[in-house]
Amino acid sequence: MAGPVSDVTRKVSNDFKGIWDSHDRTRVGSEQRQRDLLRSTHRFAYCISLFAKAATALEEHRRVFLQELASDALHLVHVLMAGDGRAGSFYLRSLIENFWRHHYFKDHFVEYEWLTSRRKYYMTLKDLRDYCSWLTVFSGKLGDSLRALETKYADLSKQVHSTSVRTLVLRDSLEQIKLSSAQATELAPVLREVFRDVIALLAFANRDLFDGMHVNSQDFIKASLDVKRRERLQADLAR
């Protein structure tokens, strides 16, 4: 028998209903399929917003890219509702980039200061990705999730940069910008995989933030993961 619906679950469900009811349905190809995709994206975006809100009191270098990560998730909801599948791939890719940036710069105050004080200073995405791969916190079961993000990032880059004629999105009017059934079918599994990996990794690597959340928020985040990620998270939390 299912347990009672938490206040968080009810709030998120009602919020999405309000968004969907006012949504321009002309921007979707298949209403039911797009509704399921948008509902999942909205739920995942809320999960990440919980981490960003929990980090509000932290120093700027420890929270700013987490907040940008939450912003990426919010923009992803927006562009998918506007029917722009390619922009969805862009923001999903940006989500991974800011995940890497967060876990580097939260531990590197000086380098973060250089981002604003040195005009030509930057960290390559390869360096950020490699740094995360060396972190002990990602050496457990969730290491599989971290490595999966690298693969998904490469795949999304092909979509964003249209490296093949198969990834071209040819439109010649605003009316043609719609999230087709084919786009939704292709994007949905990638989106869910990336979000679930990012959320599980955030919960463990930022355990101070996760542990400080209300139990209903923690349960909502865990319930947003599939069994595989939930088991990885539980195994690493038990270490």
Summary of the model, kept short:
This protein is mainly alpha-helical. It has eleven helices and no strands.
Please, could you describe this protein's structure?
- The protein has 239 residues and is mainly alpha-helical.
- The chain contains 11 helices and no strands.
- The chain has helices spanning 7-21, 31-54, 60-81, 85-105, 109-117, 125-134, 143-161, 181-205, 207-211, 215-223, 227-237.
- The model has no long low-confidence stretch (mean pLDDT 89).
- It comes from Luteimonas soli.
- This is HEPN AbiU2-like domain-containing protein.
First-residue to last-residue Cα separation: 31 Å
Q: What's the domain count? A: 1
The H-and-E topology, N to C, reads as HHHHHHHHHHH
The largest sheet, given as strand count, sense and whether it forms a barrel, is: none
Question: What is the number of helices?
Answer: 11
Briefly note the structural class of the backbone. Answer: mainly alpha
User: What would the average pLDDT be, to the nearest integer?
Assistant: 89
